[in-house]
Amino acid sequence: MQVQNSRVTKLVYALPYYLWILLFVALPIALIVYYSFFDIHGNLTLHNYEKFFTPVYLKLTLSSFWYAFLITIVSLTIAYPVAYLLTKTRNSQIWLLLIIAPSWINLLLKAYAFIGIFSTYGMANSFLETIGIGTKQILFTDFSFIFVSVYIFIPFMILPIFNALNELNPTFLEAAQDMGASKWTAFWRVIFPLTIDGVKSGCQVVFIPALSLFMLTRLIAGNRVITLGTAIEEHFLVTQDWGMGSTIAVFLIIIMFLFMIVTGSRNRKRGA
């Protein structure tokens, strides 16, 4: 009787979670899949899926992967040393809060702030003129797009890596030093492998949203960078071809799930 009551209690507590997943995850995905089988005139068709595998959309997919990869790699390259230094710093929680605080600001406000910074008469060009380089075209370039994207996503990369480093057992490092390992060897053979789960989590929360960016491609890159997110926005809001936009969204969701499976495999094995 107690076991049965326990199961009922768990089901009651889990019900809001299941309703949330159904209404805000499963149902929207089902609607996207449904609309992907209709053309712009509302006719049932598979043409959208055939069209996705044409060179135009395949090139678009590769471009999205490339920019998401660059954003993730640059974020990881900066975030790991920063997270490592935070674990060695006094009042690390305060410093971590200062790093995370900009993520609370609206994305649109940050984008417009960088438009001012990177504009012809902005702070960046003023600095370049001061040091004698002169005015450069910074805004509406690949550099500005990647720079702003990294700035926006880097707190989400730092946090899981910091948590993984903070939970690292210091006796492992002491053992490596006792066995004569250099700091560089200890990092690659001990620290990095033991914190790989934090790296994977950080890559997930950066790569997946970076794959579908669309606002920054307009405001910062000036449509010089085209991603899957940009294509979805164009089809839904400009061409009104909801079917093709939904088809791209279906493949984007599949890619996201595959990436989560690949980067989360070790966690699942550990859980088992």
Automatic annotation (TrEMBL):
It is found in: Cell membrane. Its main location: membrane. The keyword rRNA processing does not apply. The keyword Glycosyltransferase does not apply. The chain crosses the membrane at residues 12-37, 65-87, 94-118, 138-162, 242-262. Keywords: Cell membrane, Membrane, Transmembrane, Transmembrane helix, Transport. It holds the Pfam family BPD_transp_1. It is a multi-pass membrane protein. Residues 61-263 form the ABC transmembrane type-1 domain. It comes from the Bacteria. PROSITE patterns: ABC_TM1. Belongs to the binding-protein-dependent transport system permease family. CysTW subfamily. This is ABC transporter permease.
